[in-house]
Amino acid sequence: MSRKVVEVAGRRLSLSNLEKDLYPSYGFTKAHILEYYRRIAKFILPHLKDRALTLKRYPEGVEKDFFFEKRCPSYRPVWLKTADVHRHSEERMTVCLVNDLETLMWVGNLASVELHVPLAGVGSPETPDSMVFDLDPGDQANILHCARVALILRDLLLELRVASYVKTSGKKGLHVYVPLNRKETTFEDTKKFSKTVATIMQKNYPDLVTAKMAKEYRKARVFINWSQNDSSKTMICVYSLRARERPVVSFPLGWKELEGLAGQGNPEKLLVIQSEAVRRAEKQGDLFREVLVKKQKLPHL
Amino acid sequence: MKNYSESNRRHEMAVQGIWSGTISFSLVAIPVQLVKAVEPGRVSFRLLHSKDYSPLQRRMFCPEEDKMVPPDEIIRGYEIGPGKYILITDEELESVSPERSRTIEIVEFIDLKEVDSIYYDHPYYLVPSKGGEKAYRLLVEAMRRTNKAGLAKFVLGEREYLVAVKSTEGALALITLHYRDEILPDEGISPKEEGIEDEDKSRMQRNIKKMMADFNPGKYADGRRKKIVALLKKKVKEKAPVQAPEIEEEEGEGPADLIAALEESMRKVKKSR
After folding, report:
1. Do A200 and B270 touch (CB under 8 A)?
2. Distance from CA of B269 to the nearest CA of A (A)
3. Range of the domain at B126
4. What is the ipTM of this complex?
5. CA distance A273 to A292
6. Beta-carbon separation of A195 and B254 below 8 A
7. Beta strand A165-168 with A252-253: parallel, antiparallel or unpaired?
């Protein structure tokens, strides 16, 4: 195993196997992954801050086996920030908090290509900061179908004076986020609200949308997965790399931009690759910033 | 799916110890990781609902109110009499929990033969971390030759344990020991000695001697486990597995007010599109 010791923000980090090609079909090594996360750090860190990280590790690259790790590995450096969480009936668990660049680098070094976080922070695990609609295309549907659903969803929510924001999942779907940022809203609320919205969408667009998870309903339709609004679930963090053939990123889009892309009819254009992600983020800033700060109340609950 | 989870487990075992720190005595400090030494061969089953094969969950139930209790309504009580409890908070429990150990400090060396095996609780291995390999080998060898074990106090999870560190074939093992208070007395179990003839005693001893053998654990295996695994393999080949429903979806409309507002908004959205 090759090792290289670097200093990040005054912390010494021992990085291993930097030359290992973790995206072999594309040619993207662990060093490249760390470089991507270093460059995107100022955009991704606010979205990871104080959230229980779930590592999704690909020690042999994205085309081989992966494993999820919710516990923060015990061999972590002493300076690494952690939190103890314990959900009812589960034993206490120490989780990593990625609050700074050095932790982000350490996590990247574990070949944790994908970074998943819950919708609530560790300080208030039952209070989501946002509500999400996870749009997942079934067989014979694609991300363009998701774009249509996302745009209808945006308009529907706007009628209720609720603003929403959209990002690509980095795989096949889109994620629509509704910022809440108020401690009175619970997962019970967001689940009830999102499920009702999904049901209404299905009723009005039965050929395009399903609110049911079972595969037979999802064929050629977009599944609006409302059940992600749960304290036990995690979402891929905005700006995180995804493990697929190419280093594609879960990336925020402007609504106007999505309208344009939906009109062009080329699903490929909805994939944002890592180099483009850095360039665009630096140019346009964090399009997902409002998700962290905007305060909204869900009406009619 | 099965293969994935197995290789996953192997991987985690390879990289992740249960604890890492140093083992030390006098001036020696060796960086080590604690890993499992045994993997109980129990075949475990999920409990399913016979009607739709859904995996079942355990829930907390309040018999008084005849309903499920959500996590934020659950607290701890220590029972001091019928229906009487002393409440204990998480914070209070935390305040009496020992700090996590950074070192396993050997305070004395003992002869392990003196330790009745009834004190043995759970075995682990200690694996040398980078830089500690040489000192580790030295300690393994020295302990093996002297046939001694080190005694230490060690916090694992939320509990402080008395542990014995001993040399096995080529590695250090750590065995958590029961405290003396935990061992139940054996007095009164054996009936009073009366009317046993010397002749009976020596016959018994001769019988034992006749059956003496070297301990060879490889000769024994959990027969039931083997049969269960064979049975499962056979059934996998013969019969397709049953499928659990993907998610339980209780039908339910949602708040009437919200539905009305959404229907109204939906009409406007459709009109403007």
Report:
1. no
2. 6
3. 2-42+96-182
4. 0.89
5. 24
6. yes
7. antiparallel
